[in-house]
Amino acid sequence: MSDIHPQAETEVRPLVRLGRFLKDNPVIPLIGLLLILIGVLEVMRPGIISPFWAGNTIKFAIPLAMLAACQVLTMLTGGIDLSAGIVATCAAFVAATLTPLIGAAPAMLVAMAVGAIVGLVNGFGAGIARVHPLIMTLGTGLIATGCLQVYQRYVIATGTDIPGMLEWLGTGRTAGLPNGLFLFVPFAVFVLWLMRYTGFGRLLFALGSNEKAAKLSGVRSWQVLMALYVLSGLIAALTGLLYLGMIRAPSLSLANPLMLPSVAAAVIGGTSIFGGRGSFAGAIVGALILRVIETMLTLARMPEGARIALFGLIILAVTALYVRFTEQR
Amino acid sequence: VRREFRAPNAWTLGLIALFVVLLGVTRLIQPSFGVSGLESLARAALPFAFATAAMTVVVIVGGIDLSVASMMAVCSVTAAVLMQTMGGVPAILITLAVGTLMGLLNGVLIVITRVPDIVVTLAMLFVWEGVALLILNTPGGTATAFLRESIVGSVLIDGLPRALIVMAIIVAVIWVPLRRSKLGLAIYATGSDENAAFRSGVAVGRTKAAAYAVCGLFSAFGGLSLLALTGIGEPVPGPYLLAAVAAVVLGGVVLGGGIGGILGPIIAVFILRIIRTILTLAAVDPNVTTIVEGTIMVGVVMFGAFLMMRGRGPT
Q1: How far is residue B238's CA from residue B227's CA, in Å, rounded to a whole number?
Q2: Do A131 and B290 lie within an 8 Å CB cutoff?
Q3: Nearest by Cα to B240 from B255, B258, B257, B221
Q4: Suppose A143 and one of A245, A294, B161, B294 were both cysteines; which one would form an S-S bond, judging by CB atoms 3.0 to 4.6 Å apart?
């Protein structure tokens, strides 16, 4: 703001243009980056790239990309959903413990309901009480963790069972590709359709770009936010169910490690944490990139701490670059 | 300017009254609640109090620091590792320096990148969490005996917990001179209206960075108090972030900056802690206590946001 404008502008213009290009087509440079990373991986460990490896990378990128959908959708309005990881864990745990009691289908329905309830509370906080979504979802995450621990006490004797369908989705392969794609492809089409071709999607973009203008043109922001956070909770619960089928060992922190990478995937994919700009296609590529980076870190024997710190730095660096390139928040 | 200060003072007095009432309730539930109860309350509140003090400074300057709990974890493991090989005093000094540097780095990043505080510190939350794990992968290290003893028992008279006195002295020694200095004025000015402060010649960027550095310093004390409490360094951050935000809001500091002091939030910490004590004494399941506590904290933050939306501070 204190810069001398004319000088700064001539200097920055090509960067701004590049920024706009990246902003409009985040997927193109991202796919390039993904290919470069895969190339580097092949150099690091020749022969690692195989159809099996590709299938495995895709398989573990799927839950990450689904959870990133929560972040993309909420970030469109300038929010974030930090309870998504815990919601996924809760849904998975509830489904696994209820299956022996009430059968697979009702158990999965209850699990989805858990996601909807947490989403409802988030929506109330963010939409009606106007708490910053970051703090609100952090709080509901904390409460949900407490509830999960209390719940665990009651079902400790019932044992767990994983619905066969989830196991098939999570671990099976068809023609070399993971079965999770049977869930993910329709899901991705739905999210892309929702963001691009529906009124709801346009409302999300409108609220994120300029909330005041959106309100003045008659958008009831609280209704939109309420629906948005419920949707985000449902997506998180669905992710939890899929992830349960993949890991096949329900625990009280099953999907929590997915939380940070999901934010990173969304941010890498060109979604602005400040709202108004985002792409789910970018987030999918972002999830793949993160999984490839993870493989590299594992190969380089990087400790867990370095991985977490690196993901944090990626989020910061990408966001800072966007702010620098586009000169807007 | 004078009038602005009267309202928060009334709020602080109200908080003290609430705390006394809650103490009375505790006494009613558990008639044997006495000196040792007060001492353990003060000890348990220590890390929360420092986390809250850290958060207060950055909220007053108009920001927020989500990485407080992670910085505390880094400081706790740093001190625990250092104390294995060197004396307590140099280890503590190094830890305090590390904390201040971490906070300063947060602030500098916010100023340089011009990315909002909430995003930068969210990213740094993970960075510091990773750093803590790099320093110490599993809980370990050791705490010097004098550090652990410094918060046990009472001083002068029974019922005046040593932990409380230590905390009060540290917070006062940092906060009172800061509040009276030019920097303190600049912090309040930046928090109330950044543009106006900039135009009146306040170095806004430097003020923010300094406020984050103070936040880091308080977080370092928080980390040391964690170490003093448990005796080992714990690399996984505790639940201090949300508690600190809730205590800051309950303490009459407005999210958005410029209004409030440090006394209110510290009393708010004790109120939140004693609610936990009451629930525990009432034989509520500890996990249910966590749920109730989380709900109260979210409720408090919602209330604060509601007040901010109305465009006034708590009066």
Answers
A1: 12
A2: no
A3: B221
A4: B294
Q: What residues of chain B, 154 to 213, have a C-beta less than 8 Å from chain A? A: 198
Q: Per-residue pLDDT tens for A181-226?
A: 888 999 999 999 999 888 898 889 888 888 888 888 888 888 999 9
* CB half-sphere exposure, B252, CA atoms < 13 A: 23
pLDDT tens digit string along B1-41? 344 444 557 778 888 888 888 888 888 888 887 778 888 88
As for the ipTM of the complex, it is: 0.81
Question: A298 exposed, middle or buried (CB, 10 Å; 0-12, 13-18, 19+)?
Answer: exposed
For residue A25, give the amino acid letter.
Answer: N
φ, ψ for residue A315 (rounded to 5)?
Answer: -60, -50
The DSSP 8-state label assigned to residue A47 in this structure reads T
Closest CA to A264 of B133, B125, B67: B125
Q: How far is CA B296 from the centre of its chain?
A: 18
- Chain B hits for A132, CB-CB cut-off 8 Å, are 118, 255, 305
Nearest CA in chain A to B289: A146
Q: A120-177 pLDDT, tens per residue?
A: 999 998 888 888 888 888 889 888 988 888 888 887 777 778 887 888 887 877 777 7
Whether A318 contacts A33, CB under 8 Å:
no
User: Which residue spans within A152-285 are E strands per DSSP?
Assistant: 173-174, 177-178
- Tokens describing residue A97: 């413990």
Instruction: Using the predicted structure, report yes or no on whether residue A312 has a pLDDT greater than 90.
Output: no
Instruction: Tell me the mean pLDDT in the region A300-314.
Output: 85
pLDDT at residue B314, as a whole number: 43
Sequence-distant (6+) residues with CB within 8 A of B62 are: B190, B191, B194, B208, B256, B257, B258
> For residues B127 and B104, what is the distance between their CA atoms, to the nearest angstrom?
14
From A302's Cα to the closest Cα of chain B, the distance in A is: 10
Tell me if chain A has a CB within 8 Å of the CB of B110. no
Look up residue A325 and give its two tokens.
């390139």
